[in-house]
Amino acid sequence: MSYDDVIPLLGDFGRYQKKIYFLLCLPAILCAFHKFGNVFLIAEPDSRCKLPYEFPNSSYYINATEWEKWFHYNKTSQKTSSHCLIDLSSTPDAPMQRCEEFIYDYSIYGYTAVTEWNLNCGKEFLIAIGNSLFMFGVMFGSIGFGELSDRWGRKKTFFLSLVVQVVFGTIAAFAPEFWTFTIARAVVGATTSGVFLVAYVIGLEMVGSSKRMVAGTVCQIFFSFGYMLVAVFAIYINDWRILQFTLTVPGLIFLTYWWLIPESARWLVSKNRLEEAKMCIQAAAKYNKVDISDKTLDQLLKPSENSSSKEEAKPSIFNIFKYPNLRNRSLIIFFDWFANNITYYGLSWNTNNLGGDPYLNFVISGAVEIPAYIFLLLTLNKWGRKNVMSGCMILAGTALLLTIIVPQNLRWLTVTLAMLGKLAITASYGAVYIFSTEQFPTVVRNAGLGAGSTCARVGSIITPYVNITTHIWKPLPLLIFGALAFLGGLMSLILPETLNRKLPETFEEGEAFGKKELHLAINSEELMKVNIDEENCK
Question: In whole angstroms, what is the distance from residue 415 CA to residue 108 CA?
């Protein structure tokens, strides 16, 4: 008997759970602010060298004669030799010199961290390092705050991460130089795991199993809404420091949750703090207008007993490599996590390089996530996990690879294909959570999910370095993301379907899982060959 036996008495998704769940979905908006704020905080505006007679606040735009005189402007190709070099001798054949001061185009992004610290002309890698360290913080936070939430409790961990997020988000807004800003943002990245994941867990732990898929998906929709709001703030706030502070301040509102959000009753039960758990359950029952007696709770909730003082050795995730079939499936799953994550964040952070209005591109990139999640709700339990995930990855890869044949003057088509890829990869990213969980045997299911999530974080850490390859060749990032998604989708076709299947419990069952279908397929193929041979003989 456990907390799962109490939920049917409360209602799988009663009034109390709905109220708390809604409150817990709102911090997802805040976490989206921080995860995607860098798209505009360190946006790269057009720049050129400052001319000798100009003031630092001069306009970026100069006439064609000046372009040709100082920057070896080619009228045919309508390009300069380099926006980082200037001809101070004013003669066509003279060697050009590297700039020391720059004039920026503030008309699109306003005043960004790039313009303040001159992160251009060979320093673009610093932008990639900043984004990469932020995602390293996210990976570290998912491990660290996850451990704390299991030890200290969900509620304390949520508020600890929230306070740290507000403090370091403010430090980032007033950072005197690039590395202070970057380190502060990395700490904020770590706290997004503490705020979002812990709130997500609290919400799901109070919901019945029949409603968990819907609850998990709706929370992601709130995240997508916050994603789109980042562009709205960035349009009207043209100073990166004010924007960073504006994205941080809403965190103060959620400090009021200390008096609104209870500790997870499921966690309290797991820690044998049964009296506190009963108080939380009775409060929920009163709000839901149901009666649950203390006697009933005493029968359902009993302290866990250790059969022995010495803990048994737990199976390791490395044990899967001893079983060939399980090993191969696991490696494909790990690659799927990597490919989904690098493509999702790559497309999310690459909207400024697609052409057209970067703010509109960004909003569309967030908006397409909502139909992707609705699609998952409608199809995941009907079409099967494998079909949905593989199909969406192949669709995303195809759309992104097709951008290579789009003429430069058809930017709208490039944006359309990129957004189709974003929609598809969002759906497959949602499916990989469930599909990969069901692939691993019970003895290492959590460890397998953690290993997959780690592979995903590695992908997001690499993503910024892929995006700066746009300086080498503009379509290159989309082609890399497309190739990874397409390859992952193809490889996933050999994985066994898990919908309505008994999931493996042990390593032996995990090794045998899916082999039956493979043997049937081989036998069917051999039978077809025999029939063909018989027909030929006739």
Answer: 18
Are 282 and 292 a contacting pair, CB within 8 Å? yes
pLDDT for 117: 96
| pLDDT score of 94 | 64
Q: Cα separation of 139 and 492, whole Å?
A: 25
Of 481, 483, 459, 487, which Cα lies nearest the Cα of 469?
481
Contacts of 80 (CB under 8 A, 6+ apart): 48, 67, 71, 72, 73, 74
Greatest Cα-to-Cα distance within the chain, rounded to the nearest angstrom: 94
Q: What is the rounded distance in angstroms from the CA atom of residue 286 to the CA atom of residue 282?
A: 6
74 phi, psi to nearest 5 deg: -100, 110
3-state secondary structure 229-289: HHHHHHHHCCEHHHHHHHHHHHHHHHHHHHHCCCCCHHHHHHCCCHHHHHHHHHHHHHHHC
Q: How far is residue 249's CA from residue 422's CA, in Å, rounded to a whole number? A: 29
Please state, in angstroms and rounded to a whole number, the distance separating the CA atoms of residues 480 and 401: 8
Which residues on adjacent β-strands are paired with residue 74?
Answer: 79
Residue 388 confidence (pLDDT): 94
Cβ 243 vs Cβ 234: under 8 Å: yes
Give one word for 66, left, alpha or beta, with left for phi > 0 and alpha for psi -120 to 50. Answer: alpha
Instruction: Tally the C-alpha atoms within 13 A of residue 401's C-alpha that lie toward its C-beta.
Output: 12
Asked if 303 contacts 316 with a C-beta cutoff of 8 angstroms, the reply is no
Using 70 as the pLDDT threshold, list the residues of the chain that sit under it: 1-2, 72-82, 90-94, 302-315, 446, 516-538
Residue 124 corresponds to which tokens in the numbers above? Answer: 């673009």
User: Residue 300: what pLDDT?
Assistant: 80
Residue with tokens 């795991």: 193
Token pair, residue 304, equals 């866990």
According to the model, what pLDDT value does residue 303 have?
64
Torsion of CA 13, 436, 270, 210, to 10 degrees: 20
Round to whole Å and give the CA distance between 333 and 393. 13
Q: Which residues pair with 85 in a beta bridge?
A: 98
Query: In terms of C-beta density within 10 A (0-12 exposed, 13-18 middle, 19 or more buried), how is residue 64 classed?
Result: exposed
Cβ pair 438, 330 in contact under 8 A: no
- In this structure, what is the dihedral angle of CA atoms 346, 349, 355, 356, given to the nearest 10 degrees? 140
Distance CA 456, CA 2 (A): 33
List pLDDT tens digits, range 412-455: 999 999 999 999 999 999 898 888 878 888 777 767 777 888 89
